[in-house]
Amino acid sequence: MVGQSNMAGRGYVEDVKQIYDEQIKMLINCRWQTMTEPINFDRPTAGIGLAASFAGAWRLQNRQGQIGLIPCADGGSSIDDWNVDGELFENAVFRANAALKLSKLRGILWHQGENDSFGGRSAAYYNKLDVIVDAFRRELDVPDIPFIAGGLGDFLSSGRYGNYFTEYKNVNQAIEKFAETRPNCYFVTAKGLTANDDGLHFDAISQRKFGIRYFEAFFKKESVLAPPKNENELIHLIQDRPLTPTEKIALLEISFAKGKIALNDLEQQISLINLNIKP
Fold first, then answer.
1. Could you give the angle at which helices 125-139 and 87-100 cross, rounded to 10 degrees?
2. Fewer CB atoms near the end CB (10 Å): N or C, the chain?
3. Which 3 state secondary structure label does DSSP give 263?
4. pLDDT per position as a tens digit, 135-183
5. Is the dihedral of CA 245, 251, 253, 256 positive or negative?
6. How far apart are CA 40 and CA 2, in angstroms?
7. CA pair distance 184, 159, nearest whole angstrom
8. Which residues contact 94 (CB under 8 A, 6 or more apart)?
9. How big is the CA angle at 171 (ends 92 and 120), to the nearest 5 degrees?
């Protein structure tokens, strides 16, 4: 997961039902742990991103499999901040290499470009992205790995910072052209997606939809130029998946640790779950 804030996620956590699945992991301290949201905690404002629904869609196709997410996005970063000699690139390579000790790297999810949508910066976007993608593939020894990049939201021109993002369409054109001309690279449209009140960050439900679209590109190995007709249905399937007893207990433990439920409530609810699973 590489890019800036819309890859890290800024959707409001309370606006969607949480996705919790013990077979979806996230890399923390170079170890796999069960995913919880926010996944990519780059800032105190971190929230819902696209990766959870991407992973949930993968699980619908792989009922017995595990998927791991490697959060590396950094809010506010420009494409120059991702150059191959920079800290963000090196950090992403380091984390991916740590994951490769126990896993296989299957895809790179990219969303970035807001900070390159002004002052003529968009003109160099294609060439800079080309260098970065080649470097990721080379450094990680995954020459054919799918690279999936999403478009910037059309709301950018009318939001709080609308006068700032005058070249967002040029960035989208550069990313789409990149997907058309480079092998195993795919573009994902942001058509119809909406923003938080800031007009800058995708809201939580749009991030859920975006994740479905990213998976569609990953699964079909083709760019997604129109919203899938079943994306809302898939979101409900992912978010409403029946939890296992172990998952229910884990969520109760998390709620207790956050001070949301009392100890007596925790123990009573765990007892009820355990009673229900006894033969």
1. 30
2. C
3. helix
4. 999 999 999 999 999 999 999 988 778 889 999 999 999 999 999 999 9
5. negative
6. 10
7. 33
8. none
9. 105
Q: Which residue has the tokens 């925790």?
A: 266
Q: Give the rounded distance of the alpha carbon of 61 from its chain centre.
A: 18
Rounded Cα–Cα distance for residues 273 and 279 (Å): 12
What is the chain's length? Answer: 279
- 110/151 Cα distance (integer angstroms): 10
Q: Enter the tokens of residue 65.
A: 């499999």
Cβ–Cβ < 8 Å for 190, 157: no
Map tokens 């998976």 to a residue: 215
Q: Cα–Cα distance between 277 and 83 in angstroms, integer?
A: 52
pLDDT tens digits, one per residue of 43-64? 999 999 999 999 999 999 999 9
Cα distance between the two ends of the chain: 42
